Amino acid sequence: MELKAKIVGIIGGMGPLATIDLYSKIIKHTNAKNDQENLHVVIDSYAQIPDRTKYLKGEGENPLPYLLESANNLKKGFNIDVYCMPCNTAHYFINELRKNIDKPFISIVESAFNEIKRYHFTKLGILATDGTLLGRVYHDFFEKNGVKIENFDETTQSLLMKAIYDVKANSINSGIETFNKALSNIVKNKFDLLIAACTEIPILIPYKQEHIQIIDATDCLAKNVVKFCRE
What we know:
Elements: E1 7-12, H1 16-30, E2 40-45, H2 52-56, H3 64-78, E3 82-84, H4 94-100, H5 108-116, E4 124-127, H6 130-134, H7 139-144, H8 154-168, H9 172-188, E5 193-196, H10 201-204, E6 213-216, H11 217-230
Parallel strand pairs: 1-2, 1-3, 4-5, 5-6
Helix pairs in contact: 1-11, 5-11, 8-9
């Protein structure tokens, strides 16, 4: 008798395009030959979850109760086997989420870290929100594991924030232009490896004009989700 497929629960909507991007990458890495070979994936695109960066700046409502609500709704409705979340800034709350969820929760940060171990680099940066930086979502985990992340100057970080929120507003052309301005500054400052540590950034990567290696954390997460479900 064939084993029952594991059910993946995605706490999504942060933002909706980023959620679609993760699901499309899960499909890509599954490499199914027919419908039935795909994973059983349930998405809660809960776009009303409060802005994570605003909260970490002390300017908005705490998203944690909403994240827990989404996780619990997925559990009650579908008996989820493994959770993931296509929002890097929301991983500030991952320890609380793991405490309250009795099933595995695959981290986008840990997934990206496992990927960068294959690369040689001298100056690593993360393309992330101000909230991810303030919450040290990547910095703490990476430094604990012996990898240093360098920050960008204020002008470059402001450009990245604008590009990210352009994608959230579905203003993709504006986001592309601003993203490339930021990348130009980054290359001038001798960075040689970047992590797309915001799930809006992969929407812009196909349009980059600078020759610099960017690791897509969303893609790393998708690969780990597929790997878990096949174990």
